[in-house]
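Handover notes (outgoing to incoming on-call)

Open items:
1. 2-amino-3-carboxymuconate-6-semialdehyde decarboxylase: sequence verified, structure written out, both below. Nothing else pending on this one.
2. Nothing else urgent.
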Amino acid sequence: MSLPSGAPGAVIDVHAHVFPRISRDEARILAGAGEPWLRDGMMMSGEDDYRPVTPELWDAGARLEAMDRTGVDVQAVSSTPLLFGYAADAGRAADWCAMVNDRVLAYCQEDPERLLPLCQVPLQDLGLAAKAVTEARAAGHRGVHIGNHVGPRNLDDPDIVEFLAHCAAEDMPVLVHPWDMLGGDRMRGHMLPWLVGMAAETHLGILSLMLSGAFERLPGSLRLCFCHGGGSFAYLLGRADNAWHNRDIVRADSPRPPSAYTDRFYVDSAVFDPRALRLLVEVMGAERVMLGTDFPFPLGEQEPGSVVRACAELDDADRAAILGGNAARFLGLGG
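2-amino-3-carboxymuconate-6-semialdehyde decarboxylase structure tokens:
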């Protein structure tokens, strides 16, 4: 028997993706900017095969069965990053996001206590992105899912910082996912963009907010989570602090060292090794780590929560917080 969202002891996965049914014709809204759609178990980008996928990605019944098998009570459901549409004309992207958000909302209606929809927005345009958040919140979305950059603009871009402030004002938590990874020309095989680029992109997103002083300008009420365990951030925090203390160009815009800002955001637990999780908890605090699996992709955690349960350094209270308590707070769930 699954526990409802917000119930004490509920296992809540904050990092789980969906690719709702979208036809080739519908994908043409993006007019050459990726045009993602589904064909017979294959994610498509225009006319090109992108990646084979399993029914849980588009079939809510199959997802709920998988959640039952693996002991997950609740998922925060976010679009597959291929769907962001950031390269499109902003007006077309706004129409696209509205369609995707409607589909995700309908998908989650299969069991609204267990499937919590996160919206996406046309982040390339501040006004349209803010409008999309306001409309999505009114429609029933429980948070916002964004990429860690829009082209050359990192999260410290003034418009993106203003957008994050708008999310705080709307009481909408924000899940940040790496995408469109850097160094693509040098990472052509072996899924290196996912194994190396994702960690670097996430680290870049976190440090861009810290060293630019953006966290000083953003309200403390902003609830922000970085996927994939914050990338390489926890392991390299000492390097960033050392640079801040010893180089004026590093601390030029930030009045405090990077380690002073770890209470301003969350990370998920998708690090796949109890030793890595131990370090992550030491850096962030157990209250800032939430279960995240990257469901239903094969590079995700196949046994949700297994690393949390295997980390001997965590006590029962820490495990309960990471497996669900922190996510209930992040998502604003009652109970």
